[in-house]
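Weekly modeling sync, notes
Attendees: S.R. (lead), two postdocs, one rotation student

Agenda item 3: backlog of single-chain predictions. S.R. asked that every request posted to the team notebook include the full sequence so nobody has to chase files. The rotation student volunteered to paste the first one in as an example of the format we agreed on. Action items at the bottom.

Example entry:
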Amino acid sequence: MLGILTANIIKKEDVFMNTLVIVLIAVVVLGLGYVLYGRRIAKKWGIDPKAETPAVKYNDGKDYVPTNGWTVFSHQFSSIAGAGPVTGAIQAAVFGWLPVLDSYRRRILRCCDRFRCTLRIS
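Predicted structure, as returned to the notebook:
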């Protein structure tokens, strides 16, 4: 009942949320989750931030070499991003192109119907 009353009071045109607001809210929530959950897990598992990594402990100049954190991040990012074109082609081979084309066809028809309604074409 409250939803019906609210819908009558607030028109669809009056409700406006900027995409930037949604992105900022998501960034804040994810950032807080990262910090707070990270602290909880570090306390629970007893992680020591001053502990030596295997690259420092077994540094031999060939297999175990200490590196910058940004270098490690870029390697992980490129590994994840590089798999996108491969998995996309595999999904297309498995599921076919018809579901993709059908969803585009529906979108185009919806846009055409809206266009006809605005021009009052029957």
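Discussion: group reviewed the output briefly. The longest helix spans residues 19-45.
Action items: rotation student to repeat for the remaining queue; S.R. to check formatting next week.
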